[in-house]
């Protein structure tokens, strides 16, 4: 089953010689951009390189934007209760993360660490806000796609919560049935004549 939180929302089979336009056109936020519009937004994208074990974002720090992986692999980690990191996902070329930071500057809910040398594109909130001011039509495209992505993930979260709740209720009922059966007269555990 695909992970609705970190899974790919688009086909990520990318050829090595693809242009940046072709790669980013598969990212939901930029899907509706034509080449002319992309040329306008390309100047506000930030190219970043990360070394092995380098943190791209850290859990608890203020989020400033999203990253799109061009090369390499990263791991998404969450700090566990005893401080042990919990591995949530491994992402590769064509994957993206951190898009919620485009809407608000709340703390990151997980860390992203490079597993190997990585190249990534950063799209940050201040640049998105400037894009909205300069070109409201393009800004609206970004906001609409961003809201669709977050809505999709919220629906998936709701589905997973409902399934988890149903499993918990079923387990509780099974436990109650076992306890009730163990306490009934005439059962093997309560009737000495059956031994």
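-> sequence recovered:
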């Amino acid at each position: 089953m695909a992970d609705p939180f970190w899974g790919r929302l688009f086909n990520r089979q990318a050829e090595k010689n693809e242009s940046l336009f072709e790669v980013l056109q598969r990212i939901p936020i930029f899907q509706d951009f034509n080449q002319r519009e992309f040329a306008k937004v390309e100047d506000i994208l930030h190219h970043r390189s990360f070394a092995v074990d380098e943190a791209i974002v850290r859990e608890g720090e203020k989020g400033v934007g999203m990253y799109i992986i061009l090369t390499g692999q990263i791991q998404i980690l969450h700090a566990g209760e005893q401080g042990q990191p919990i591995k949530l996902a491994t992402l590769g070329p064509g994957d993206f993360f951190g898009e919620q930071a485009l809407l608000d500057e709340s703390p990151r809910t997980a860390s992203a660490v490079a597993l190997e040398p990585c190249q990534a594109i950063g799209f940050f909130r201040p640049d998105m806000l400037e894009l909205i001011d300069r070109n409201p039509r393009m800004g609206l495209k970004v906001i609409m796609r961003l809201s669709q992505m977050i809505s999709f993930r919220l629906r998936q979260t709701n589905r997973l919560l409902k399934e988890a709740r149903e499993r918990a209720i079923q387990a509780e009922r099974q436990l109650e049935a076992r306890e009730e059966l163990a306490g009934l007269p005439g059962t093997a555990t309560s009737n000495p004549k059956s031994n």
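Helices lie at 20-24, 35-42, 125-134, 136-183.
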